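Exercise 7. Predict the structure of PyrR bifunctional protein from Frankia alni.
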Amino acid sequence: MTEIPDGGVDGRVVILVDDVLYSGRTVRAALDALAAYGRPRTVQLAVLVDRGHRELPIRADYVGKNMPTSRRESVAVRLREIDGADGVLIVSPEASPAGAAAGTADPGDRP
Ligand SMILES: O=P(O)(O)OC[C@H]1O[C@H](OP(=O)(O)OP(=O)(O)O)[C@H](O)[C@@H]1O
Ligand SMILES: O=c1cc[nH]c(=O)[nH]1
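Solution. The predicted structure, encoded as C-alpha cells:
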C-alpha cells in the first residue's frame, strides 16, 4: 500500500528503504513511481544488505551490511516483527542435494 504524507513529496527529503539491494531494478522502479507523486528535494536510499551485482548505476546512501555474494546465491532478510526472528540468510543452491539450503550469513567476503 502506498501512503503519501499530507502535502505530498514536493521539496521533501525522501528516503527509500529496502531490505536487499541487488541489481538495482527495484529501486529504479521505485524512483519511476515516486516521480508520479511530485518532485522531492532529494531522494536517498537505505538498505539493510547490499549484496552487489548491480545492473544499473544505483548506489545506497545508507547500508546496514555490505555482503559480497555469488550470483547463484540469494539473500533473504528476516525481521522479528514479521518472521519471528531477525536474521540474514544466504541461500546457496549448492548447499544441499535437495538444491537449496539456508545458512547464517558469514560477514566475511564471499566469491
Ligand atoms: O535490486 P533488485 O535486483 O531489484 O533486488 C532487490 C529486491 O528484491 C527483493 O524483492 P523481491 O522482488 O524478491 O520481493 P520480496 O521483497 O517480496 O522478497 C528485495 O526486497 C528488493 O526489493
Ligand atoms: O538475493 C536477493 C536478490 C534480490 N532480492 C532479494 O531479496 N534477495
